[in-house]
Amino acid sequence: MRRVAALVVLWAWLTPCFAATIVHENAVRRQEIAIAKKLRCTVCQAESLAVSQAGIAQDMRKLIRQKLRAGETPAQIRSYFVKRYGDYILLKPPFDPLGAILWIWPFALAAAFGGVAIAVMRRRARAPMPPSAPELGPEDQARVEALTRQE
After folding, report:
1. Pick from 6, 20, 70, 81: CA 20 to 30 A from residue 103's CA?
2. What is the pLDDT of residue 16?
3. pLDDT score of 2 more than 50
4. Model confidence, pTM
5. What is the rounded distance in angstroms from the CA atom of residue 117 to the CA atom of residue 61?
6. Angle of the 55-69 helix axis to the 2-38 helix axis, nearest 10
7. Which H or E element spans position 136?
């Protein structure tokens, strides 16, 4: 009877510990997935770490989990990955003025060339036509006919 009572007491004492561990692990897993959804897989194209099945993505998720267990915040973990891989690792990178210029300049360049082309075409349309060749007189006409007969 004492053994049964001891087992019941032991079970009643350990159950909350296991439950707390499970709850904590679920919270860590949810945080891991939330962070992984915001990070890009380095070998996949436009896939987040959360859905990628690549080996490196699995390793990165394990690293996220280890850092969460060590007590790091999601912001610290994201900054670690940004320091290591650059802004490319973020699925939604922050606004960068240089990046905006790189996206905009081809369109601006095309608009500038289009404007120059339109200005040149308008200038040519307004320019006077060159004079046409003068009419041949009777002497010149006779000379042209004589030369064409010789050939």
Report:
1. 81
2. 60
3. yes
4. 0.53
5. 54
6. 120
7. none
